[in-house]
Amino acid sequence: MFGDDPFWLVLIKAVFCFAFLMGCVLISIVMERKVLGWMQLRIGPNRHGPWGMLQSLADGVKLMFKEDITVKGADKALYILAPILAAAPAFMAIAVIPFGPADDPVSVFGTETVLQLTDLPVALLYVLATAAIAVYGTVLAGWSSNSTYPLLGGVRATAQIISYEVAMGLSFAAVFLYSGSMSTSAIVDAQSDRWFVILLPVSFLIYMISMVGEAHRPPFDMPESEGDLVGGYLTEYSSIKFAFFMLSEYIHTVTVSALMVTLFLGGWRAPAPLSFWEGAHSGWWPLLWFTAKLVCVIFFFVWIRGALPRVRYDQFMVLGWKVLIPIALVWLMLVATVRAMQNEEYEFRDIVMWVAGGVLLLLLLSFVVDFFRDRADQRREEAEAARPAEPFDPMAGGYPVPPLPGQTLPPVPRRPSRAGRATAGVAADTPGSTSASTEPGREGDDA
Fold first, then answer.
1. Quick check: helix, strand or coil at residue 164?
2. CA spacing 20 to 30 A to 133: which of 98, 163, 373, 431?
3. Distance between CA atoms of 296 and 26, rounded to whole angstroms?
4. Which parts of 319-429 fold into alpha helices (H)?
5. Cα–Cα distance measured from residue 179 to residue 174, given in angstroms and rounded to the nearest whole number
C-alpha cells in the first residue's frame, strides 16, 4: 500500500505531517497556559490575538529577537549541534502514525492515497529508535556547556530516558503479542472489536506513566528542575537554541500522545456511539477522530502538571526500576500465557482458572518473601540497637562529616537555658538549701 505514491504526493504528505506537528505544538502551548490558568484561578494569556490564542507565536518571535549567547568555555560545535539533535528526531516518529484506514484511501488532487506517510513491519521499533536518538541532544547540551548544573541535568536525562524506555518497551511487547504485528496500521486494525486500553489495561497504565517520564514533563521534569538545577541542561542556552529545546519537548509530547492513541485508544477509529455510523471510518472523518483523541491525551499532560507536585529524583528512579519494570515483566508473562493458551484453543474457563491460580501463587510468594524480609529487618534493627555506639569524630578528616549508621555524635556542651538558670537560683535561695550561701560576699548580696 506504500511506495506507489508519486513524489509530489509524498512531499505533500510530509509537509502535512510537519504542519500537523507544529499546529499541535502551538495549540498545546496556549491550551496548557489557559487550562493551568483556569485550574489555578488565574486569567492566563489574553493579550495576543483573540482570547490570547496567538501567545505562542508571540513567544516564538520574542525568542528569535533575544540575544544569542555562546558560552566562552563551551565546546562550540557540540553546543550548537545539541539543539538540532534534540529537535530533529522528534519530527521523525510521526511518519509511521496512521491518520486513516489503509484499505480506504482518500483522493488528493485526483490521486488515491492512504492517510499515512509510510509504514514499516517494525514501525514501533523505529519509533523507539528515534526517541533514543533524541536523548543525545540533551546529553550533549549538558556536557558541551562545560558547566556544573547543565551537566547534572544531562546525566539525569540519560538515566531517566534509559529507565523509562525499558518499561515503555515492555508495554509495547504486550501490544505486539495481541496484534501479532509491529506495524502501526496492523495494530489499529487489530482494535476493530475492542481497544487495547480495555484488553491490556496494565500496559496502558505503564505506558501512560512512562510517556510522561520520557517526555520530561511535570511531575517528572527532572532534567530541567529549576528548584535544584537552576534550569538543568538548558541553563546556558538562549534565543533560538532555547526555542529549539522547548520545541523538541512539545513535539515529543505530541508524538508520545499520538502513539498512545494508536496503540491503546483505537487510532483513527471513532469512539463507541459514532462507530455505529457506517461512514465514520471512511473519507476524511478518521482524521477528525484521531485529532480529537490526541487533544484529550495532551489535555491529560496539562492536567497532571497542574495537579501533581514534582517528585524527588530517587523516588522517580525507584518508581521506574522497582515498580514499573517488575510489574511490566509479570504482566508480559501473563499476557504471553493467555495468548499461548488461546492459540492452543483452551476454553475460556480453563484460561481463567490457570491465570487466577498463577496470580494467587504470585501473591502468596510475595507475601512469604515480605514476611521473611520483615523478620530479617527486625533482627537487624535489634542487633544495631544492642550494639554499643562506636566512637565518632565529626572532624576526623579536617571538615565536618555526618555520622554513619551505628555511629552517634558526641554530646555538645551547651549553656543551660535562662529558665534553667532561674530555677537553679530559686532553689539555692530556699531555706535549708545546701547551696553555697556562706560563700564570701553572699551575705552582702542577701542583704
1. helix
2. 98
3. 15
4. 325-343, 348-386, 418-429
5. 9
- What does the mean pLDDT of the chain come to? 83
User: pLDDT tens digit string along 377-391?
Assistant: 888 888 777 776 666
Q: Which residues pair with 112 in a beta bridge?
A: 107
Measured CA to CA, the distance from residue 88 to residue 90 in angstroms comes to 5
Cell numbers representing residue 410 in the block: 558526641
What the block records as the C-alpha cell of 135 is: 536523548
Give the alpha-carbon dihedral of 87, 89, 90, 94, to 10 degrees: 140
Q: Kindly provide the b/e burial profile for residues 365-398, where b requires at least 16 CB atoms within 10 angstroms of the residue's own CB.
A: eeeeeeeeeeeeeeeeeeeeeeeeeeeeeeeeee
Which residues, 6+ apart, have CB-to-CB distance to 338 below 8 Å? 351, 355
The three grid cell numbers given for residue 217, joined into one nine-digit string: 514533563
Cα-based distances in Å from 207 to 90, 169, 199, 204, 222: 18, 9, 14, 5, 18
Distance between CA 350 and CA 230 in Å, rounded? 57
Cell numbers found for residue 429: 535561695
Whether 273 contacts 267, CB under 8 Å: no
pLDDT at 443: 45
pTM over 0.90: no
Which residues are 390's β-sheet partners? 407
Q: For the residues of 126-150, what is the DSSP string, one character each?
A: HHHHHHHHHHHHHHHHHHHTT-HHH
Residue 249: all three cell numbers together: 519537548
Helix (H, G, I), strand (E, B) or coil at 388: coil
Choose among 311, 361, 321, 331: nearest CA to 200: 331
